[in-house]
Amino acid sequence: MKSKLKAKFLPPHYLQDNFLKLHHLKQGSKSIEEYARDSEQLLLKCDLKEDDSQTLIRYLSGLDEQIAHVVELHRCTSLDELSALAHKVEMQKKLKGKNPIPKPTPRPYGFRKPPHTP
């Protein structure tokens, strides 16, 4: 019945368009939450049956490169775990950008400690 409803109400190119969107999905300027939501919606629309490792790699390949490099260092076994870790990395990245660690100011050349005066 499900397939008959899809055939009747969905255009013939619907599935192909969604597979194309899923294949080209990138995080870009989206937050991790938005990217994860878009990824999950497309997986559902495509009714894609793939094992967890394939889904993890697909998700990881669309992440922001800086976030993906950090997340790749950890072993994740589920999409929820990977998404949570990516969210933490994203938050750290944002915090680091807002409050950069101040660098010590170099002393001018030839600066000496003033002599001790009683």
Please describe the structure with a list of short key phrases separated by commas or semicolons.
118 residues, 60% helix, mainly alpha, single chain
Write the layout of secondary structure elements.
Elements: H1 2-9, H2 14-23, H3 32-46, H4 52-62, H5 65-71, H6 79-98
Helix pairs in contact: 2-3, 5-6
Describe it for me?
The chain has one domain. The protein is elongated. It is mainly alpha-helical and 118 residues long. The chain has helices at 2-9, 14-23, 32-46, 52-62, 65-71, 79-98. The chain has 6 helices and no strands.
Structural class: mainly alpha
One letter per element, helices H and strands E, the order comes to: HHHHHH
Q: Helicity level, as a percent range? A: 55-70%
Reported for the largest beta sheet, the result is:
none
Low confidence ranges: none
Treating each run of at least 4 consecutive H or I residues as one helix, how many helices?
6
Number of domains: 1
Rg: 24 Å
Q: Based on DSSP secondary structure assignment, what is the total number of beta strands?
A: 0
Indicate the mean pLDDT: 84
Q: What best-fitting shape do the alpha-carbon axes yield?
A: elongated
The fraction of residues assigned to DSSP E strands is under 5%
Separation, N- and C-terminal Cα atoms: 97 Å
